[in-house]
Amino acid sequence: MISRDKAPTAQETFMQMAQAAGLRGRLLVTVGILILVRLGIFLPVPGINRERFAEAISGNNSIFGLLDIFSGRGLSTLGVFALGILPFINASIIIQLLTAAIPSLENLQKNEGEAGRRKISQITRYVTVGWAVVQSTAFSALFLQQFAVNPGPVFVAETAIALTAGSMFVMWASELITERGIGNGASLLIFVNIVASLPKSLGDTIDLVQVGGREIVGRVIVLVLVFIATIIGIVFVQEGMRRIPIISARRQVGRRVLAEQRSFLPLRLNQGGVMPIIFAAAILSLPLLIANFTKNADLANIVNTYLSPSGSGSWVYALVYMVSIIFFSYFYSSLILNPVDVAQNLKKMGSSIPGIRPGKATSEYIERVSNRLTFLGALFLGLVAIIPTAVESTLNVPTFRGLGATSLLILVGVAIDTARQIQTYVISQRYEGMVKQ
């Protein structure tokens, strides 16, 4: 007999994946959809001179490289799924920000239950369509048109329609994975896209080692050790939390008097996950995009010098990046956790924190603890975002460019969440087995 209190072992998990029809079906649906989306990346957008396009992006910036990794090399191959899941992620971020600012959306999320969540999901889909149209039109008109065989309004319209349709299909696929598969669909699509770029980076690194000799081998070994240490740190911090003890008051149910119960309120060390890094990277990419579109040489020189990780003023870039990450960490933590609501809910349930008065004192205590945790988590995110890139630039190993802190955080976070969901399903199978017996 398997103890219901123990976490499932690897052997038990793999046995359930092979034998349990429900889990096996979900895994097959997930793998099939991921393969289908990967194949769609290589369906080419027509009417583009690909040789000129490849020459133009060969020496492009790290922001383009990061977006290209998120799309699974869809931008560099100019496939129909070039935009990938990015419009849906952007729309989700917009709706999250608006939910905190618009009372009607906040009411849908907090008070309307499942119907409210479905309504917000529908609004997110509409925003995704609009955002995909804007992104695809701007990408086609401002960037792709210079590589078109027959440039003009017809080319822009056709390319925008193709890219928007591809993005909508990817959004549908991600929701299908979330509903009928394993894990979060959008996160898994980004995970697979990042993993798909690893073979090319590894191949380029092997070629660099063969050409460079022993000196390059030492540099690559140091860079790999830094990546491994970063992954270990990410796991510890992603799993780290502060457990605030909570005592529930005695209750009388009929003639029985229930003793006070002890539980805890979990506050994660990294509330925002990877979102603060994504926001900070987006802010730092704006001056570069403006310089590229305006063709201003002075602005481009300033940006390449002070707002680039490889520029002579890279310390300014690192400082701005760190401050931006800390700011967005606090901002995103405020969206996720509301100390006043938590204190009110504890008071309604007759629960309290030992040594803290209910009400305002409880909310102030939770806010103080949350701010300290957020500061520590933000410092960690900033170090994780800066150190691998700085080491890569110092060692002059450019083959992993774009595969930095953000990619590592996403890989580790999605792997942990998906493994937890599989373990939860395995544990539920235990209880079904006990009921049948």
From TrEMBL:
Q: What is this protein called?
A: Protein translocase subunit SecY
List membrane-spanning regions. 27-45, 80-105, 126-148, 154-174, 181-198, 218-237, 272-294, 314-337, 373-391, 397-416
- Report the protein's function: The central subunit of the protein translocation channel SecYEG. Consists of two halves formed by TMs 1-5 and 6-10. These two domains form a lateral gate at the front which open onto the bilayer between TMs 2 and 7, and are clamped together by SecE at the back. The channel is closed by both a pore ring composed of hydrophobic SecY resides and a short helix (helix 2A) on the extracellular side of the membrane which forms a plug. The plug probably moves laterally to allow the channel to open. The ring and the pore may move independently.
Instruction: Cite the record's note on assembly.
Output: Component of the Sec protein translocase complex. Heterotrimer consisting of SecY, SecE and SecG subunits. The heterotrimers can form oligomers, although 1 heterotrimer is thought to be able to translocate proteins. Interacts with the ribosome. Interacts with SecDF, and other proteins may be involved. Interacts with SecA.
Q: Which UniProt keywords apply?
A: Cell inner membrane, Cell membrane, Membrane, Protein transport, Thylakoid, Translocation, Transmembrane, Transmembrane helix, Transport
Protein family membership:
Belongs to the SecY/SEC61-alpha family.
Its lineage reads: Bacteria, Bacillati, Cyanobacteriota, Cyanophyceae, Nostocales
Name where it's found: Cell inner membrane; Cellular thylakoid membrane; Membrane
UniProt key word Protein transport: yes
Coarse class of the protein's main subcellular location? membrane
Question: What topology does the record note for this protein and the membrane?
Answer: Multi-pass membrane protein
Pfam families found in the cross-reference section: SecY (PF00344)
Q: Does the keyword Transport apply?
A: yes
Q: Which domain of life is it from?
A: Bacteria
